Amino acid sequence: MGDEGEKAAFSVNEQVILSIDVSTPRWFTGGTRIGRVDIPNVIAKQRNQLATNYTTRDQGQTWSHQRWEITLYPQQSGQFTIPPIAVNVQVSGEDGQSVRGTVQTAPVTFDARLPSALLTQESIWFTASEADVSQTWQSSTETLHVGDAVTRTITITAKDSLSVLLPDLMAAETGGDHAVASSRDYQAYAQPHQLSDTQTRGDYQSRRTEQTIYILQMGGDIQFPDYTFYWWDTQHQTLQTETVVGKSFHIAHTWRSWLAYYWPMLASVIISC
């Protein structure tokens, strides 16, 4: 999407690239500053802090160009208008002296919509051109006992997305970043999430890593849950489903955990006798 005022359609959460092209028939003599982009219900980021520089010739005249990129992420369905953006430039004047000035981009309108009828605003999903999920398990000892720890780490990587838009899969269990939750089988400690957004030569990559440490509180077999999420593949225009498979562990009892586990049954036997 350029800055010439055309209208385009995208998916909710899809990365929209606004290109701003600044040109002069002479040359740039100082840094160019792009004004703030503020649109309701749209996340705007200037992830690429460097412009693409190039030259063109028009009727024998050489023009120097700078192309800047602003990434936009619409958060809901609807029509959005990017207002004029102030661009502060410094170029060489006809007398060879530097001239400072401010130009305005043309307004741009685009639409965003849910890409699939299977999705709602409340669904756990994101939009990307490529995505991958990986998982690791670590335990404090090879043979687990009550009081030992199991660590579950899930990493989602995506191309042409944003780390804050990638799902927090274990939030329902722990309540979010830094949270603590407990159950009969374990106590769960959510670790600080690791969010990363990088850009290399127009290649936008995002990563979200979440980790939870489980302190085992009960012996026997413990099953950790599966997690399922969706992502809209902008490259193939299809809805993809990903499942992060859970895992079961056998936990050896201590005398105290054995008594806590079997006491209801023992008590019922004693009462019946």
From TrEMBL:
InterPro entries: BatD. It comes from the Bacteria. Pfam families: BatD. This is BatD protein.
